[in-house]
Amino acid sequence: MDIATPSGFPIIGATEKIEKVFRPVDIKLDDYVGVIMPCMAVRAHPGPPVSSETITIVKKALSDGKLVAASTFSVIILAEAGLLKGKKNAFASDPLKTTETRKITDPRFLDAIYSGPGVVQDGKIITSGSCPFMERRVGLQNRTVELTQTFIKALGPK
Fold this sequence. Notes:
By secondary structure, the chain is α/β, with parallel strands linked by helices. Helices cover 23% and strands 16% of the residues. A four-stranded mixed sheet has the order 3-4-8-7. Strands 1-2 form a two-stranded antiparallel ribbon. A two-stranded parallel sheet has the order 5-6.
């Protein structure tokens, strides 16, 4: 497993620091069985721009028949890439419905099929609508372990 971010800078968390971080341009996708994107808090529409390098990687991974998994706000990256059209997906709440906290809908999800906040697999795409942030913020069950287990199971036997 390797970690890549657009900057390639080390990741410093509350309890850990990850020194070895690649940039997407340094990753040879052929060396991997798939891509897992943790919740990257890219937020709802309109939000900050999604890295074009990340979009290129997920599109290539899917076109190469690899698995792509995304947790919570990283599901937006798949929508931005146009990869959710006609696909079932998980998200914290339906991005095409307004709520008290979300006053506008997210057009990137127009042709996607919202399937709740759990873990959803549709072909080579696996999505989860909740992460540690959403668990703390709104009380949704953290689905990180379930997303990872679904990804591993989808790889099949070696």
